[in-house]
Amino acid sequence: MKFIHAGDLHLGNPFTGLTQVPAWLKGTLQQATETALQRLVDDAIAEMVDFVLLPGDLFDTTTPDTRAQLTLRQAFETLQSAGIPVYLGFGNHDFVANWQNLPTWPENVTVFPAETTTVTLVTKAQERVAITGFSYTQRHINDNRARLYPVKQADVDYHIGLYHGALGEDGQGDYAPFTVSDMQVKHYDYWALGHIHVRQTLQDKPFIGYSGSIQGLNKNESGPKGYYLVTSEQGELIPTFTPVAPVIWQTARVRLASDAPTAIQRIRQTLQNDDDFQLVELSVTSEDSALLSLIVNNQLLAQLTAASTPTDNFFVYNIKLVAANEEVSLPAVDQQYWAQTADDVFNYDMLQQLGLKQVQDSAVLQAFLTPAMLAELKQAVIEKLRLTEMGVATDED
Ligand SMILES: [Mn+2]
Question: 279 near 318, Cβ under 8 Å?
Fold first, then answer.
């Protein structure tokens, strides 16, 4: 027996955390989740899998646009023409508030209802398989739903649990909180989990775990992303990670010691690769004061973006300055004094010094003053002080 376990497709997701994307890259990013799904469908047919399991968050929202719906429908139709059934439950992102509003899917698709439900199928090799699952009908489920799952049926070869949720105590989480032991006592052969976007194994054998999102949606979902191809080996169901994400969030480090044109050439050579497209956050180490100044003022990033071309298979969305020794020390500033006055430092004057002087509208400026932004600014100030210590001029004018 062979099947696919793919959590969190998030069709229709707009990539977040990218501010300056060149026009040539927009299409690639917009299509990334769709491309990942198409690759999964191609693989399913090439591998002649017995079925596909989708444990929730197929759509990014509960009101997916026509394009996202059409993408999923076409994927299901392609699988149907290859004789591959699909079993799915909706999650917290695409919960079903009104079942009448759901598109009609091809006949090969089984949608688990709100109630915990078990279906059975017979594979090409005549193995009997039971699959138990449910769908979200609201954004949050505070109850433990795993406890409602039946124990393994006596009349099947394999019993699989489809579950969208997160570990937690009953009544204390928003995503059908469960414990591993709640699942262990059911004696299933495999638990296909959805919700957590990073691959995570809660138990090796029998497998209980998350396959993660099939396409990284932001910088926190870095590295190759894909699905689990699960095969039966001597009665056990063994998952194998299979990458399909066409766009990979990545971090890279580079040491630079030259003028900007040479540095840009060096960065571009370093990041050129034969793999899938990479969105890169670049950590730079440098002792060159002119170059450091360009980085702090975001000019190197602007020049790098300008040098990017549609044939590139990478894009640098951020450049971070990293001290050569990893530690950012502040020899000129007393640490205690810094801690006491840090909050006072974040005023409009400091924001202006940090390059926000173009922002005249106070409402826009207020929008920047989020805790995350302040933390970032604090880091920028530390860098600025360090550079001042090194004798680097950071002001543009
Ligand atoms: Mn999700």
Answer: no
Collect residues with CB below 5 Å from ion ligand 1.
8, 57
Phi–psi pair at 164, nearest 5 degrees = -105, 115
Question: How much of the chain, in percent, has pLDDT values that exceed 90?
Answer: 71
CA of 196 to the centre of ligand 1 (A): 6
C-alpha 10 to ligand 1 mean position (Å): 7
Tokens of 386: 């360090």
Nearest-angstrom CA–CA distance, 114 and 138: 10
Between the CA of residue 27 and those of 32, 112, 219, 235, 276, what are the distances in Å? 8, 33, 19, 44, 15
- Rounded CA separation 313/24 (Å): 11
The β-bridge relationship of strands 109-111 and 86-88 is parallel
Structural tokens at position 295 = 């980085």
CB atoms inside a 10 Å sphere around CB 230: 23
Question: Residue 200 C-alpha to ligand 1 middle, in angstroms?
Answer: 14
Q: How far is the CA of 180 from the centre of ligand 1 (A)?
A: 20
Q: Which two tokens stand for residue 110?
A: 């089984």
Q: Which pLDDT score, from 0 to 100, does residue 328 have?
A: 45
Helix (H, G, I), strand (E, B), or coil: what is residue 194? Answer: strand
| Residue 141 one-letter amino acid | I
Instruction: Map residue 367 onto helix, strand or coil.
Output: helix
What span, in angstroms and rounded, lies between the C-alpha atoms of 210 and 233?
A: 20
Task: Quote the ligand 1 centre to 171 CA distance (angstroms).
Answer: 20
CATH placement of domain 2-243:
3.60.21.10
Where does CATH 3.60.21.10 sit in the chain?
A: 2-243
pLDDT per residue as tens digits for the range 193-241: 999 999 999 999 999 999 999 999 999 999 999 999 999 999 999 999 9
> What is this structure's pTM?
0.81
* Cα–ligand 1 centroid distance for 91 (angstroms): 7
Tell me how far apart the alpha carbons of residues 195 and 56 are, in angstroms, rounded to a whole number.
7
Rounded-to-integer distance, Cα 227 and Cα 241, Å: 6
